[in-house]
Amino acid sequence: MRPIIAVPSYPRVPERRIRGWNADNVGVPAPYLEALRRAGGIESIVMTESLDEDAVEQILDRADAMLLLGGGDLDPSTYGADPTTEKIYGLSADRDRTELDLTRAAVARGMPVLAICRGHQVLNVALGGTLDQHIPDRDGVWEHGRPGGGGGGLEHKVQIESGTRLARALGADRVVASCHHHQAVETPGAGLRVVARATDGIIEGTELADPGGPWVVSVQWHPEDTAATDAAQQGLFDTLVRNAEA
User: Fold this and answer.
1) Per annotation, catalytic residue among 179, 180, 222, 245
2) Could you give the angle at which helices 53-61 and 93-108 cross, rounded to 10 degrees?
3) Does residue 161 have an active-site annotation?
4) Which of 30, 65, 135, 184 could make an SS bond with 244 (beta carbons 3.0 to 4.6 A apart)?
């Protein structure tokens, strides 16, 4: 049996926003799912609408692991902050609630999780961490690409701490990563260990600090962008699926 990977979707898209689609719809960018399929996993898409506790548990009961995707910003209220910039975009209260509830429950039950870009930030907030709302305002921060799709990716080098779950999954201590984000982890959440940084110091990877804990790894960059041709990036999806099988 191939493992089932729960994948919370992008927010609901209202009717007629996509030409020829006359009803609301939900979606997931294909490169994430293609990487999961190459790794031997099967996706189970979860619509990001408010879920009660029973629904959260029933979804995770049927899954072997979870993949958190990129997307718009988290509402600052989810980490106890007020907006500090007009650059915040793509807010979705339903998506925030769904992903935060699923993430806390998945970590509590010891489920493997790979969290990418927005997902990296969701994991951090779910565990009590905070975010920098607009890193271009920081002195000394290099360009990290433009969020929101449309060819805004930018490749740069990321240094990974040796011997970590992330380094083992990538098979490397240094990678070239595709980034397109304007926010970043500021204060790491409880139990999270910073294991990767860009050369300008921006946190690019975290994982659970407990070496005996579940395989829970997050990256700020987009491994799905280059996983089809970069074995290191595909290794993240491969390792998620192997842990799901276990």
Assistant:
1) 222
2) 60
3) no
4) 65
User: Which residue among the candidates 86, 161, 224, 245 is catalytic per the annotation?
Assistant: 224
> How many separate domains does the chain show?
1
Q: Report residue 78: phi and psi, to 5°.
A: -70, -20
Element spanning 232, H or E: helix 231-245
Active-site residue, selected from the candidate residues 117, 134, 144, 182:
117
Is residue 224 annotated as a catalytic residue, yes or no? yes
94 touches 75 (CB < 8 A): no
Tens digits of residue pLDDT in 104-160 = 999 999 999 999 999 999 999 999 999 999 999 888 998 898 787 556 688 999 999
Across 16-25, 151-160, 189-198, 202-211, least confident range: 16-25
Domain around 44:
4-245
- The answer to whether 173 and 163 are in contact (CB under 8 A) is no
- Say whether 222 is catalytic: yes
- For the beta sheet containing 65-68, the strands, ordered from the edge strand earlier in sequence to the opposite edge, are 42-46, 4-8, 65-68, 113-116, 216-219, 203-208, 192-198, 154-160, 174-179
